[in-house]
Amino acid sequence: MSFEYAENAHSTHSAPNTDRDTAMALKIVVAGGFGAGKTTLVGAVSDIRPLRTEETLSEAGQGVDDTAGVARKATSTVAMDFGRITVHAGLTLYLFGTPGQDRFWFLWDELSEGALAAVVLADTRRLEDCFAAVDYFERRRIPFVVAVNCFPGARTYAAHDVSHALDLDRGTPVVLCDARDRDSGKDVLIRTVEYAGRMHTARLLDSVR
User: What is the DSSP string of 61-116?
Assistant: First the structure.
């Protein structure tokens, strides 16, 4: 297994910041199907060089990994991706990207422990690949946002069509994004934190009634 730090990060060094000690730090999980863009999203938004655990796809995995629709994909995450982004002064998000293949799902429980919320990346060319992630977070009552990664050349669907196709609970946000674009990814994360805040507040109020 190779652990690498991406070279194209936005910042490789940062000056000491005493405010960082008092900032709110939240954990966000980035999940979704194989090849949906999880590693790309974490790398695009991270303020630090993201930690990646990728292996090159080999002939031995051809009978295991379904690469239909993502035939150009050459590597795969085998443990996790990790990044960090300061959304604004006082709020830092720690991002944990999950592996997409079925055989690595046993890692999801560890990666999701203590998470405020999750982003489920969806690829409309392989929309069924994110069913498992949707089911996972719904069962554990972890708030999540579905982010449709708009790949070049892929058919575009409206948010309500994706919501219907995935049979999402009413109110679960669906947003369109470009996982390669920092601003687009940051918008997804902000929507996720806002939605999680509303959900946790509503559950707290319900518990005291």
Answer: GTTTS--TT-TT--EEEEEEEEEEEEEETTEEEEEEEPP-SGGGGGGHHHHHTT-S
